[in-house]
Design brief:
Elements (H helix, E strand, L loop, with lengths): L14 E2 L3 H14 L3 H9 L7 H5 L3 H4 L9 H13 L4 E5 L3 H16 L5 E3 L12 H10 L2 E5 L6 H5 L5 E5 L13 E3 L15 H18 L11 H10 L7 H14 L4 H9 L8 H18 L4 H7 L3 H36 L6 E6 L6 H12 L3 E7 L2 E7 L6 H10 L5 E4 L3 E7 L3 H14 L10 E2 L2 E2 L7 H8 L13 E14 L3 E7 L5 E6 L7 H6 L5 E13 L2 E13 L1
Parallel strand pairs: 1-12, 2-3, 2-4, 4-5, 5-6, 7-8, 13-14, 16-18
Antiparallel strand pairs: 8-9, 9-11, 10-11, 14-15, 14-17, 15-16, 17-18
Helix pairs in contact: 1-2, 5-9, 6-9, 6-10, 6-14, 9-10, 10-11, 10-13, 12-15, 13-14, 13-15, 14-15, 15-16, 17-18
Length: 579
């Protein structure tokens, strides 16, 4: 049965409320624990019992962090790493060009600097070199270094790693592994095929952090002391959120603690980036995912690939300010490029039809640095896995994004094994690929088949799941603060979503190119402000702007808006329906 009788909202979705079991469990939990009902609702929906509630609300790393040795090759990786440190050998860090790669590299660079060593940073150019280790780069690094550490890449790089003659190689990664592993000192990856997959939720920075935990243990066993690892958790939190790793298990504790470290403003790069991003409140997962992450990513997308890692690892405030300013400029340029590609890709995908198991688009000259973001937009618009490919001549480089329950990375890897792609790989929710023009249509057709077998493309837009209804007067700063106790929220741990029923639009204004700012009223003195990002990319924006005095049910997530030092509740609007 639909919630508030909404069978088809303005975005075409049916609204579904909490089940009777969740309501009963949250009520019982409130009685047993004395916690606010709103918090108990969130915990009950996540399957947390009254006995587990206290531990869930106060996640502790010492209880949740797994023993690093649960991962294969971990002891060997840490031992070789420490050997290089003790012998003052030449170390190179080869990283991916995204936030996870940059943060992973920064973790190692900062740790090594505190031990008195300066490592070489190498991040490949997205366009000229593509993702991951390549033969010329690895040969060049091997000629001048004793140890190469590949972070957020390398698991499928058999030939490039074999080319690193004269140097040892360690891989610290989280991307899906193949049937065989590269021949090197260690491949530490929770998503190797011979791993259980229990720790597969870690991003690469989480894997690097666990390696540093193991290195610290081996140092203590030898009577030595290493750098303070807790001070590095801001980098782990940034990578975890920006790489859309699920906020479950140890990731909850890593992010919660990392946000506290970030709030202390000790890392020059993150301080400078927060300032150019005009962050005016304590850092949250929203800031990491939507303000800081895209700016760190901008260097790898359309600028110089190493800018993000350099920013995150520098201890010089002046260098940090200059790098943050440059990344902010690149992020603005990236938006302009993305908007042009997105419009063309959406037109093409709509012409092909948005009802298939796979939504895809390809175009000549589309910048490879934005195809992943555009794929995300297509996925959101269609509620299906999406792939976007930019061609340069006969070769196309593309990126895909998936929906919950559909493993895109494994399907892309299968396409590569079948010879339909030059190369491809990734993880469940995101993947990259290279394809020749003459294989494009058969490759997409085959990928659509593989994804359909996993259930992609069944039904229309997904139901919108709601945690209950609130009147505007109940949406207070205090309530939002209570709900935040159950965070952090993000991938795998969605923030609660509420309906605010039967309200009038008192004020509506278009903000920027596609956003909508609203003031909502119940007509009895109660009201709340709302913001709807991307409203004019959907039917929501035009209808609510030209509301004609109609009343609507509104749905979204509550947040605290800080402006001029004052805090007020705000609804981050996701959907609406005629009341």
């Amino acid at each position: 049965m639909s919630f508030l009788g909404v069978e088809q909202s303005l975005s075409g979705r049916r609204w579904v409320g909490p089940g009777v079991e969740v309501d009963r469990a949250s009520e019982m939990m409130a009685q047993q624990t004395g916690l606010p009902r709103s918090v108990c609702q969130v915990l009950a929906r996540r399957g947390v019992s009254a006995m587990e509630a206290k531990g869930f609300l106060e996640p502790k790393l010492k209880e949740l962090l797994p023993d690093p040795r649960e991962m294969k090759d971990m002891e060997a990786a840490a031992a070789r790493f420490l050997q290089a440190v003790q012998r003052k050998q030449r170390i190179a860090v080869f990283a991916d060009y995204d936030v996870d790669g940059g943060s992973s590299a920064a973790l190692l660079l900062v740790w090594l600097r505190q031990m008195g060593l300066e490592a070489t940073l190498y991040i490949p150019d997205r366009i000229d070199e593509g993702y991951g280790p390549n033969v010329p780069a690895m040969q060049e690094l091997a000629a001048a270094h004793d140890l190469i550490i590949c972070v957020d890449c390398g698991t499928l790089s058999h030939e490039p790693i074999a080319a690193a003659k004269g140097a040892d190689v360690i891989v610290l990664d989280h991307h899906l592994g193949g049937e065989t592993l590269p021949d090197c000192v260690a491949v530490v990856n929770p998503n190797r095929q011979d791993e259980s997959g229990d720790l597969g939720y870690f991003c690469a920075a989480g894997v690097v952090f666990l390696m540093l935990v193991e290195a610290g243990r081996q140092m203590r066993e030898a009577g030595a002391k290493g750098p303070d690892l807790m001070a590095l958790l801001d980098l782990v939190a940034l990578a975890t959120v920006a790489d859309v790793a699920p906020l479950i298990g140890a990731n909850r504790a890593l992010v919660r603690q990392g946000l506290k470290v970030m709030a202390a403003r000790k890392r020059p790069g993150l301080v400078a980036l927060s300032d150019v991003s005009r962050m005016d409140s304590a850092p949250s997962t929203y800031h990491l995912g939507f303000l800081l992450g895209p700016r760190v990513n901008a260097g790898g997308r359309i600028g110089k690939a190493d800018l993000g890692a350099r920013l995150l690892s520098t201890d010089n405030p002046h260098e940090a300010a200059a790098l943050a300013e440059r990344l902010d400029q690149l992020n603005t340029e990236r938006r302009d490029i993305e908007n042009a590609v997105r419009a063309a890709a959406l037109d093409q995908a709509e012409a092909r039809g948005l009802e298939a198991p796979l939504v895809w688009a390809a175009g000549e000259g589309w910048h490879p640095g934005v195809v992943g973001i555009v794929a995300s937009r297509l996925k959101e618009a269609a509620g299906r896995p999406a792939v976007v490919i930019g061609f340069d001549g006969e070769e196309g480089k593309g990126s895909g994004r998936s929906v919950s329950g559909v493993d895109l990375g494994a399907s892309i890897q299968r396409l590569a094994a079948e010879g339909l792609l030059v190369k491809g790989g990734g993880h469940k929710m995101a993947a990259g690929l290279t394809v020749m023009r003459d294989k494009l249509e058969p490759a997409m057709e085959r990928l659509s088949e593989l994804l359909a077998k996993q259930g992609a493309g069944q039904g229309g837009p997904a139901d919108l799941k709601l945690d209950g209804a609130l009147m505007p007067g109940a949406a207070t700063v205090e309530l939002i603060g209570q709900i935040e106790q159950a965070g952090p929220f993000g991938a795998g741990a969605p923030a609660p979503r509420y309906a605010l029923p039967d309200l009038q639009v008192r004020f509506a204004k278009k903000v920027g190119e596609s956003h909508l700012k609203l003031s909502l009223s119940d007509g009895m003195g109660g009201g709340v402000d709302a913001i709807c990002f991307g409203a004019f990319d959907t039917a929501l924006g035009p209808r609510l702007l030209e509301h004609g005095g109609a009343r609507f049910h509104f749905a979204g997530r509550l947040e605290i808006n800080t402006w001029g030092g004052r805090q007020s509740p705000q609804l981050r609007l996701e959907d609406a329906a005629e009341a």
